[in-house]
Amino acid sequence: MNVNLSPVFEDYIKQQLDTGMYNNASEIIREALRIKMQQDEVYQAKLIALRAAVTAGLESGEPEPFDVNAILAEAKGRAGLDV
């Protein structure tokens, strides 16, 4: 497999090689791909959770009106704060 990289990426790879952390460009590319795969897994897990939350919200019934001030007053009362 051949991959063409922009000069920006080539310079970055050279900089990384100069640090001595990597033996060759392939190691850098493999690590970058591992990180990308991990990010994709996290993204997919978050997406699944978000979709589940949306579905749960849609299936929870009709919305009911609420009074924000009453909710805040109740929370402050539970916390022992002056209302």
From TrEMBL:
Alphabetically ordered keywords of this record: Toxin-antitoxin system
Keyword Transmembrane carried by entry: no
GO biological process: regulation of DNA-templated transcription
The UniProt record lists the keyword Iron-sulfur: no
Segments crossing the lipid bilayer: none
Family indicated by similarity: Belongs to the ParD antitoxin family.
Function per UniProt: Antitoxin component of a type II toxin-antitoxin (TA) system. Neutralizes the effect of toxin ParE.
Protein name: Antitoxin ParD
Origin species: Marinomonas mediterranea (strain ATCC 700492 / JCM 21426 / NBRC 103028 / MMB-1)
Lineage: Bacteria, Pseudomonadati, Pseudomonadota, Gammaproteobacteria, Oceanospirillales
